[in-house]
Specification:
Number of strands: 10
Oligomer: single chain
Distance between the termini: 32 Å
Helix content: 25-40%
Order of helices and strands: EEEHEEHEHHHEHEHEEHH
Number of helices: 9
CATH superfamily of the largest domain: P-loop containing nucleotide triphosphate hydrolases
CATH topology of the largest domain: Rossmann fold
Strand order of the largest sheet: 6-7-8-3-9-10
Bound molecules: adenosine-5'-diphosphate, magnesium ion
Radius of gyration: 18 Å
CATH architecture of the largest domain: 3-Layer(aba) Sandwich
Strand content: 25-35%
Number of domains: 2
Largest sheet: 6 strands, mixed
Amino acid sequence: MIEAKNLTKDYGNFRAADNVSFTVEKGDILGFLGPNGAGKSTTMKMLTGFLSPTGGTGVIGGNDIQQNPLEAKRLFGYLPESGPLYTEMTVKEFLTFIAEIRGYHDKDAAESVIKRAIKICHLKEVRNQTIETLSKGYRQRVGLAQAVLHDPPCLILDEPTDGLDPNQKREVRKLITSMAKQKAIVLSTHILEEVDSMCNRIIIIANGKVIVDSTPDGLREKHPGKSLEDIFCDLTTSQKGS
Ligand SMILES: Nc1ncnc2c1ncn2[C@@H]1O[C@H](COP(=O)(O)OP(=O)(O)O)[C@@H](O)[C@H]1O
Ligand SMILES: [Mg+2]
C-alpha cells in the first residue's frame, strides 16, 4: 500500500535521505525509527509529495506520488511534524475547511466525516475552541483528525506522540492501534517503547540510510540479551561520522 522507492534528498552537498526504500501493507504498523536529524521527516515529506526528491519516489496504493499526486493523496492521511496550521480557527472550522479541500462539497457528507473524526480523536469537548487555545495533546489529536478525516487506507504519521505527556501518549497510541487492522500505517518516532508496543515492523534510519529492516522480535533475536534501546544506541552510534 505504501512504498518508498529509493528516496533520496540532497540539500546542497548534504544527503539528508539516502536511497530509502520500504513497503508497508494493510495491517502493518511500521515504526520508522532514528535519532534526531536521521532523515525521517525528510523521507515522509517526499513520500507524501510535500518535498520533491533528488531521486526515487513514493507510491501509494499503486499511484506514483509525482506522476499521479491527486490519486495518491486520496489514499493517505499525513500528520506533518509541525502539526496543524490555521490556529485561529476552531477545531470544527478547521476540519470543515479540510473536508472542503478533500472534496466533501455536500454538507451532510462533510458533517458526517467531521463528526466521525471528532469522535475517533476524542475532540468533542474542544470542538468549538480555537486551535491556538488547545494544549499540545489536543493539537496533536486535531492533526490526527485531519489525517483520518477521509478514512484513508494509508496513514503517514510524523512523530504522532511528540511532546505529549504519558497519558496523552497512551491515548494517541491506543487511537492509532485501533485503526491498524484496516490500514497501512507508518509512523516515525525516536521512542523505543512506542515501537515495541505498537509496531509489527521496524526500520531504523541513521544518517539518511536504512540500517535495519526487521521486526521488534527479530531485532531482539539477532542481538540476544539486549534491550531494543541498547540495540538502537549501538547501531546508531556506530554509524556516526560514517
Ligand atoms: N531545508 C533543509 N535544508 C537543509 N538541511 C535540512 C533541511 N531540512 C532538513 N535538513 C537536514 O536534514 C537532516 C534530516 O532532517 P530530518 O529529516 O528533519 O530528520 P528527522 O526527522 O529524522 O529528525 C538534518 O540534518 C537536517 O538538519
Ligand atoms: Mg523529524
